[in-house]
Specification:
heterodimer; A: 515 residues; alpha/beta; Glutaredoxin; Ubiquitin-like (UB roll); 21 helices; 16 strands; B: 161 residues; alpha+beta; Arc Repressor Mutant, subunit A
Chain lengths: 515, 161
């Protein structure tokens, strides 16, 4: 059999936002018109976003990388006939696996991301896909749950609740109908790991949900996907079709007596629906208003039934944990933060992208070793970790180890691993004001501290800006924040004060009169 | 689909009636079909799903994505979230409002462009980001914004002629 050469051009939102679709189409046209036996494979992204569109060519030594190859670079790429193994092109980067940004990572959950054709079940299986499912099908529900508990996996969506304990509660809840809900409402600014995984390795999420179904005896799953992710929607929809055709969804999965299916439900632009109870309301077709807890969703969740709710990355970590064993996963990380976290470098960073690492590295490592400092060339000044509800950290805190407890000890949170860097031109009073403004815009309105507190917060910060009783208003802002922290029903109102107070504390000069 | 708005909506409602928790699914389908959710069809949805009109209206008004009035030919969403702010989205926003002569949630007088804010497109590695239809654009500044808008306007002219 003659194997045709392969050229990989990512089909990923960010790669496409930089022209990857145009590059792929132009290459396909060139190969067709000139009768060149080369296939253009649309893989996912490796997550080296400052190098996208990153083209790869398969060679005996491994994949050679070229990037960023914008549409206007194609003439040179084609002229050099890079697909024949030639590397005489100004944007040649060497072997992909040897690019330091990638080489220094520990890709566990993202092992296949950017490597395979996201929609090919056979490639997925060649890279250990469905191996976890195969093991899980031979295990008892309790054994699966115990394995997950032992792995130390904590919810990757932000709250970091031990996933195994959640599953145990659902397993122990008596009900003929239970649900698995995947929270794919990745609304935090600076985060894109869920999107990447869904676009680049959708079967991994499907497999994780399937194993969750086997673990708690649920036969129906929902993916609550945000409307802002059209490509992820497209890829997941097709992956579900292929999984059904391959008997990985439906009845008698892989010859077993187990059934499971998944439905995608689209959100409609409400940030609060990433909060789990608000998401359940939204899935039920209602306003996304937060529910008081208890009852926990694990006991009384979707349509009143016991429900596992996990984030995309939590669920996508499950197949590896079951396949390689809890001990292997648990061997990564520090303290009670076990395993790896895909960090996402965003904002004003030179080398942005996804960095999967065991817990315990420092923020400074990420910002400088991986990120190489600011994109603007100006000194970095503030870094927001964990999305819009996460604290702004000044340079003095950048050596804090990236683990859940260490961050919580400094009044910050790792959240979903998003890291947004700002250079010295940032106005931290404006950032604090935006935190309150965002809370006012996105509050579900159910509880007063969040609904009204955020509006008052914007007003108080405006008064500070206008120099009206600055000191008194700063005190008032702190009191208001304390009320929101103590009195809000969920994390929206309860955590919005963190970025505000951290800005006020660590960047006090930006709140001075006349600034 | 052909027929009056009411017929279109009635067909969507009957298609999803048996789906558990169908309202968002129905609203997405209606907006997909009609481009917006006309207030006069709210009673059709309510009756079809055995809900009150207030419940349906409450859901439509809760979610930013649902529109009760038609949008322009193209909708441009500008990301206002932190990562884009770190790369100059505040200036981009200002430029967009000035150059189009409209505020957020408004449509240009020629009916071509509606401007909407959005809070994260997941393109934070290449901020600032905007979305036009299903296409996301990276590293957008005033100049590239103008050329994206110019392309949309040319496209509109070509379609018309």
């Amino acid at each position: 059999m003659i194997t045709r050469s392969k050229v990989f051009v990512p089909r990923d939102t960010t790669a496409c936002s930089l022209g990857a679709d145009k590059v792929a189409a132009a290459l396909q046209r060139h190969f067709r018109v000139n009768d060149i036996a080369v296939d253009v494979v649309r893989n996912g992204s490796r997550g080296l976003y400052w190098l996208e569109p990153l083209i790869e060519i398969e060679t005996d030594k491994g994949r050679q990388a070229f990037g960023p190859v914008y549409p206007h670079d194609l003439e040179e790429f084609i002229g050099a006939r890079c697909w024949e193994g030639n590397t005489d092109f100004s944007k040649h980067l060497g072997l992909t696996e040897e690019i330091p940004f990638l080489q220094k990572q520990t890709r566990v959950t993202f092992a296949r991301v950017g490597v395979i054709d996201p929609l090919s079940i056979s490639e997925y299986k060649q890279h250990a896909g469905f191996a976890g499912l195969e093991k899980a099908l031979a295990m008892s529900s309790q054994d699966i749950v115990s394995e997950l508990k032992q792995s130390g996996l904590r919810g990757r969506g932000g709250a970091a609740f031990p996933a195994g304990i959640k599953w145990q509660t659902v397993l122990d809840s008596e009900s003929a109908q239970k649900y698995i809900v995947c929270n794919a409402d990745e609304g935090d600014s600076g985060t894109y790991s869920d999107r990447m995984l869904m676009e680049s390795d959708p079967f991994c999420l499907i497999e994780g949900m399937l194993i969750a179904g086997l673990a708690v005896n649920a036969d129906q799953g929902f993916i609550y996907l945000r409307d802002e992710y059209p490509l992820a929607h497209n890829v997941l929809t097709e992956a579900l079709v292929r999984a059904r055709e391959g008997n990985y969804l439906g009845n008698n999965i892989q010859g077993s007596d187990k059934s499971f299916d998944i439905e995608i439900r689209l959100g409609a632009g409400a940030y609060i629906c990433g909060e789990e109870t608000s998401m359940l309301e939204s899935l039920e077709g209602k306003r996304g208003e937060v529910r008081p807890k208890p009852p926990l969703p694990a006991v009384k969740g979707l349509f009143g039934k016991p429900t596992v709710i996990n984030n995309v990355i939590s669920l996508a970590s499950v197949p590896t944990i079951i396949n390689q064993g809890a001990a292997c996963y648990e061997s990564y990380g520090v303290n009670s933060s076990r395993g790896t976290l895909p960090f996402q470098l965003s904002g004003n960073i030179k080398q942005t992208g996804l960095v999967e690492l065991p817990f315990g590295a420092s923020l400074r490592d990420l910002l400088y070793d991986f990120g190489e400092g600011s994109r603007s060339g100006k000194p970095l000044r503030a870094v927001q970790v964990g999305g819009p509800l996460g604290a702004y950290l000044p340079e003095s805190q950048w050596n804090t180890p990236l683990d859940y407890e260490a961050f919580s000890a400094i009044g910050a949170m790792l959240g979903h691993g998003g890291i947004v860097a700002f250079d010295e031109s940032v106005d931290m009073r404006e950032q604090a004001r935006f935190s309150m403004e965002f809370c006012a815009l996105e509050s579900c309105g159910k509880c007063t501290p969040c609904r009204i507190g955020s509006v008052r917060g914007v007003e108080v910060i405006d008064r500070i800006k206008n120099g009206e009783n600055t000191d008194e208003n700063k005190e008032l802002l702190k009191e208001l924040c304390a009320t929101m922290v103590a009195g809000s029903l969920c994390a929206m109102g309860g955590l919005t004060p963190y970025p505000v107070l951290s800005a006020l504390e660590h960047f006090a000069e930006d709140f001075e009169q006349g600034k | 689909m052909s027929g009056s708005r009411e017929e279109v909506v009635a067909a969507i409602v009957s298609k999803f009636k048996e789906t558990p928790g169908p309202l968002l699914v129905v609203l997405h389908a209606v907006q997909n079909e009609l481009g917006f959710i006309p207030p006069e069809i709210v009673p059709v949805i309510a009756a079809g799903l055995n809900l009150s009109r207030a419940e349906v209206h409450g859901v439509i008004s809760f979610y930013h994505f649902f529109r009760s009035a038609p949008a322009g030919r193209h909708t441009i969403q500008i990301c206002r979230a932190e990562s884009c702010q770190a790369m100059g989205s505040r200036e981009l926003e200002k430029h967009a409002r000035q150059s189009l002569g409209i505020e957020f949630h408004q449509t240009t007088a020629d009916g071509q462009i509606t401007l909407e804010p959005v809070y994260c497109l997941g393109n934070c590695a290449c901020s600032p980001a905007i979305r036009v239809g299903d296409a996301i654009h990276a590293h957008v500044d005033s100049d590239s914004f103008d050329s994206i808008v110019a392309d949309l306007q040319t496209e509109a002219v070509e379609v018309k002629s």
